[in-house]
Amino acid sequence: MPRVLPFAIYIAFIIIADVLERCGLAGSTLRWLYPVKTALVLALLLVYRRHYQELRAKPARRDVLLAVGIGAAVFLLWIVLDAPWMRTGTQQAFDVAGDDSRIDWALVAMRAAGAALVVPLMEELFWRSFLLRWLHQQDFLSLRPSRAGVRAATISVLLFGAEHNLWLAGIVAGIAYTLLYMRSETLWTPILGHAVTNGLLAIWVIATGSWTYW
């Protein structure tokens, strides 16, 4: 539950936003769902923080450097793996306009902070710490990350890719973060790599106005 519930809440908000949009609610009304869901996920992570034993193991310096490099590489791949056949559905741009039609920079800052700080922790706890190991054995907490099998890794990576509109980029990212986790055997490396990817993507989105990537 400590690893599944924060992720489930996050996905539930995405579904709720989609349903409300299909019911005719304007994007300007729904844009505040993101900071609400991010705050709720963060609150759950803080409540459950004592359950995350895997976060007690710190990565070696070389693994930190590798995670930063891999995270940057995934970002570069993310913005080029965007051909029509690499997408599922139509990605709606994140509505950043305030009531006066100008960019709401407070909302943009919250979106960037959530993507770079909260999402990597929440998703890596679910996808790598929980699902990857649980697919190998139900007593997942006793399984060393390096012992997770190819079957478990493949299924978790494919599901991770399916979670994203850019499914191929998602699969590439899933492979990278999974290998980081299995190699270092500490969850902080995929969290760091994921954070670097999302942080660089946030900077790129803001600098270029490519809001559809959010």
From TrEMBL:
<feature type="transmembrane region" description="Helical">
    <location>
        <begin position="105"/>
        <end position="127"/>
    </location>
</feature>
<feature type="transmembrane region" description="Helical">
    <location>
        <begin position="64"/>
        <end position="85"/>
    </location>
</feature>
<keyword id="KW-0472">Membrane</keyword>
<feature type="transmembrane region" description="Helical">
    <location>
        <begin position="191"/>
        <end position="213"/>
    </location>
</feature>
<dbReference type="InterPro" id="IPR003675">
    <property type="entry name" value="Rce1/LyrA-like_dom"/>
</dbReference>
<keyword id="KW-0378">Hydrolase</keyword>
<keyword id="KW-0645">Protease</keyword>
<protein>
    <submittedName>
        <fullName>CAAX prenyl protease-related protein</fullName>
    </submittedName>
</protein>
<keyword id="KW-0812">Transmembrane</keyword>
<dbReference type="GO" id="GO:0006508">
    <property type="term" value="P:proteolysis"/>
</dbReference>
<dbReference type="Pfam" id="PF02517">
    <property type="entry name" value="Rce1-like"/>
</dbReference>
<feature type="domain" description="CAAX prenyl protease 2/Lysostaphin resistance protein A-like">
    <location>
        <begin position="110"/>
        <end position="199"/>
    </location>
</feature>
<dbReference type="InterPro" id="IPR014346">
    <property type="entry name" value="Prenyl_protease-related"/>
</dbReference>
<feature type="transmembrane region" description="Helical">
    <location>
        <begin position="32"/>
        <end position="52"/>
    </location>
</feature>
<dbReference type="GO" id="GO:0004175">
    <property type="term" value="F:endopeptidase activity"/>
</dbReference>
<keyword id="KW-1133">Transmembrane helix</keyword>
<dbReference type="GO" id="GO:0080120">
    <property type="term" value="P:CAAX-box protein maturation"/>
</dbReference>
<feature type="transmembrane region" description="Helical">
    <location>
        <begin position="148"/>
        <end position="179"/>
    </location>
</feature>
